[in-house]
Write a structure and sequence with these properties.
There is one protein chain. The protein is an alpha+beta fold. Helix content is about 30%, strand content about 25%. Helix 2 (about 30-40) crosses helix 3.
Length: about 100
């Protein structure tokens, strides 16, 4: 069983029928899932991090959203630059990025 150090959940605005629609999807959250995966791979921390595309978290005005466990840190209004910093400081360095928390 895989037991990563971090599990990152990224809102993909998926509905129960599988349709992707909503704020996070409109703001390119699917590409942000890929950005997390790319950054994790490039930083060679893929054995420590798992990324999962999720359904709606229900706070669309803060989207795109990601949640990092085990701490349960919620990040909002994400873009590629913020993801790079989250990967560097939180996933590599172990320190959540306070200014992006929601």
């Amino acid at each position: 069983m895989v037991q990563p150090k971090y599990h990152v959940f990224v809102c993909g605005s998926s509905r129960i029928n599988g349709t992707q629609m909503g704020t996070c999807f409109q703001k390119k959250s699917v590409g942000l899932v890929q950005k997390f995966m790319q950054e994790i791979e490039e930083r060679d921390i893929s054995s420590d991090c798992l990324v999962t595309n999720t359904g709606c978290f229900g706070i669309c005005d803060k989207g795109p959203i990601a949640v990092v466990y085990p701490e349960g840190v919620w990040y909002g209004n994400l873009d590629e630059a913020k993801i790079e910093e989250i990967c560097e400081k939180h996933l590599e360095g172990g320190v959540p990025v306070e200014e992006y928390k929601i």
